[in-house]
Amino acid sequence: MRAEDRSLLKTMPLFAGLPAGIIDRLIYGSFVQNLPAGAVLFQQGDQPEFLYVLLSGRVALTARSTEGSEAVIEFFRRGDVFIAPAVILDLPYLMSTRILDDARVLMIPAEHFRDQLARDAALNAELVKELARHWRLLIRQIKDLKLRTAPQRLAAYLLDLSGGKGGTIKLPEERRMLAGRLGMTPESLSRAFGQLVAEGVTGRGSRVNIGDPTQLQRFCAFDRVL
Questions:
Q1: CA 96 to CA 60: how far, in whole Å?
Q2: What residues does each domain of the chain span?
Q3: Does residue 144 contact residue 153 with C-beta atoms inside 8 Å?
Q4: Superfamily of domain 3-145, CATH level 4
Q5: Which of 12, 54, 156, 187 is most buried, by CB atoms within 10 Å?
Q6: What DSSP letter does each residue of 109-166 carry, written as one string?
């Protein structure tokens, strides 16, 4: 691993509270793989072989129905760990991955990770916090789909990107991928952007400006996840 990779690990939620010795034992036997955009780490239904830590780039998690339709479930970015539950339970993945931007991925062997969990209480405590964060993200998605309109879902997503603040932000995903993540068609996403103009949201392409974050928070009943 590069020195900057080790420094990054120490800032990540799962690793930040761990002593250096535990981190060293955890990543023993691990390796870093460079993957181009479009590559696939694993497919839905595969048995987990590694715990993945994203050191750079972006990854989309997708799911496919029996009819072949595909949905974007979530995006992961630099510093994220995925998909821990399948590794912990040693059960098949419920989703597939697709590399969106050239990525560097730390790959910790699944069996080794489970062995370290069985040995180390501190790692267990940090993992509980990591899983709790992912649980909150899942609840947000359920609330979005059940309680929020398309413009409100988009508003909450934009506020998450901006940290709840105003100003100009850059959409990290293509609008087509973003529409899938928010449970919309690309056409519905365009209409949602149009409806948010009345709430102070403007911009073109990947650049979006939030004029009044307080107004936008009221509009979508914003609840901070992390």
A1: 8
A2: 3-145, 148-220
A3: yes
A4: Jelly Rolls (2.60.120.10)
A5: 156
A6: EHHHHHHHHHH-HHHHHHHHHHHHHHHHHHHHHHHHHHH--HHHHHHHHHHHHHTT--
Please identify, in words, the CATH class of the domain defined by 148-220: mainly alpha
3-state helix/strand/coil string of 29-88: CCEEEEECCCCCCCCCCCCCCEEEEEEEEEEEEEEECCCCCEEEEEEEECCCEECHHHHH
The pLDDT tens digits along the chain (226 residues) read 788 888 888 888 889 889 989 999 999 999 999 999 999 999 999 999 999 999 999 999 999 888 878 888 999 998 899 889 999 999 999 999 999 999 999 999 999 999 999 999 999 999 999 999 889 888 988 888 899 999 999 999 999 999 888 899 999 888 988 998 999 999 999 999 999 999 999 988 899 999 999 999 999 999 887 6
CB 146 within 8 Å of CB 83? no
The three-state (H, E, C) secondary structure of 202-219, written as one string: EEECCEEEECCHHHHHHH
